[in-house]
Amino acid sequence: MTDERPLLEVRDLVKHFHVGGGLFGGPAGVVRAVDGVSFSLRRGETVGLVGESGCGKTTTGRCILQLERPTSGEIVFEGRDLTKLDDVELRPFRRRIQVIFQDPYSSLNPRMTVGQILAEPLAVHGIVPERAKRETRVRELLAHVGLLPQHAHRYPHQLSGGQRQRVGIARALAMEPSLIVCDEPVSALDVSIQAQIINLLEDLQREFGLTYLFIAHDLSVVRHISDHVAVMYLGKIVELADRKSLYDDPLHPYTKALLAAVPIPDPELEARREHIVLRGEVPSPLRPPSGCVFHPRCPIAIERCAREVPELREIRPGHGAACILA
Ligand code: SF4
After folding, report:
1. Superfamily of 41-66+85-233 according to CATH
2. How many whole angstroms from 14 Cα to the centroid of ligand 1?
3. pLDDT tens digit string along 276-297?
4. Which residues contact ligand 1 via a Cβ below 6 A?
5. pTM of the prediction?
6. What spacing in Å lies between the alpha carbon of 29 and ligand 1's midpoint?
7. Residue ranges of E strands in 21-78
8. Phi and psi for 42 in degrees, rounded to 5?
9. Is 13 within 8 Å of 36 (Cβ atoms)?
10. What are the pLDDT digits (tens) for 72-96?
11. Which residue, 254, 278, 259, 163, is CA-closest to 218?
C-alpha cells in the first residue's frame, strides 16, 4: 500500500569525478557520471533505474546511500536534504537506507558465520542490545528470507549464490530500513534463482512496507517489481514513466532499443512493436557528445539532435521523455 508523500526526492543530482592531470595521469578531465537526475519514490513503491554499464545508475545509488557526496543537487529523504547534513547528522538516516549488492559474496565477511554477520549490526547499532534476544532476532531474520536456523552456523562459502543473496537481504532487513537500494541484486544469479529473489523482495516489501530503488542493466529484470521505471543514458534520465506505459508504449528511441532486446510473451504486442538495433558503444562520459547525448547511436536522429539538448518533459500524463522528436 503506498501513500502519496515521497519518501525520497532526488532533485537535479549531479556527480562529476575529476580524473587525470597528475604527474603520470594523462590529461585532466571531468567524468559527468550523473548529470542532472531527478525522480521521486513514494513509500512502499519500487522505482527501477535501468541503463547500460557506465550510465550513472550505480553512482546515483551511491549518492543516495551517501557513499558518494554529490557535486550538486538535493537528496531529500524523510523530509531532510541529506546533502546538507554532516556525518553525525547523517548517522540515523544511514541506518534507514540500506543496500543489497550484486555480489553478496564480496560484501559478506568470509571469517564470520551467517549468525555473526546478522547479529553484528543488531549489536553495533543497539537495535537488539541483549545477546539472547539477538539470537532470536537472527532466527527471525533467517526465516523472513527463507533460510533455516541451522544456516546461522554456516560460513558464506558454504552457501549457494542464492542463499548468500538471502543473507545480504537479511542483513539489510536487520537495520529496519525504510528504503533499500537494490544494486543489481540478481545479475550474478541463475535465471531460476533470480525469480525467487525478486519474489522474496516483493513479499518483504508487502510485509514490511519497504521502498526499493531497484538498479538493473536489463529492462526485463525490473519489469515485475517496478511501479515506475527510469531509463538512464550517459548520466541523464531519458525516460521516466509508470511501468505499464513504459513497457507498452515507450517514447524514447533508447528505451525502444533496450526493449527490442527483451522478448515479449504476448505475440500481438511483439508483432506491433518497433525493432531498433543500437549502433556502436556508449560514448565516454569524459567526452559526452554535443546536443542529445544519444544522437551518435540514435536511429532516427536528425541534424538538430547534435545541437539541441532535449530536456526530460512530460509527453503524456506521468510519462516523460528527453527527445525532441517525442
Ligand atoms: Fe534521437 Fe534526436 Fe531524440 Fe536524441 S533528440 S533521442 S538523437 S531523435
Report:
1. P-loop containing nucleotide triphosphate hydrolases (3.40.50.300)
2. 22
3. 777 788 888 888 999 999 999 9
4. 252-253, 292, 294-295, 298, 300-301, 305, 310, 323-325
5. 0.92
6. 26
7. 29-42, 46-50, 72-77
8. -85, 155
9. yes
10. 999 999 999 999 999 999 999 999 9
11. 259
C-alpha cell at position 135: 539470537
Alpha-carbon gap, residue 171 to 118, rounded angstroms: 5
What separation in angstroms does the CA of 34 have from each of 16, 140, 321?
A: 7, 39, 17
- Out of 254, 279, 300, 315, give the residue to mutate to test ligand 1, the one with the largest number of ligand atoms within 8 Å of its CB: 300
C-alpha angle 101/107/110, rounded to 5°? 145
The closest of 253, 230, 252, 233 to 241, measured between CA atoms, is 230
**In the chain, where the domains are located:** 41-66+85-233, 240-326
Cα(46) to centroid of ligand 1, in Å? Answer: 28
User: Which grid cell is 64?
Assistant: 543516495
**Radius of gyration from C-alpha coordinates of the chain:** 21
- Measured by CA distance, the residue closest to atom 3 of ligand 1 is 323
Atom of ligand 1 nearest to the CA of 306: 7
Ligand 1 centre to CA of 279 (Å) is 14
What residue type is 308 in one-letter code? E
Of residues 106, 108, 82, the one with CA closest to residue 95:
82
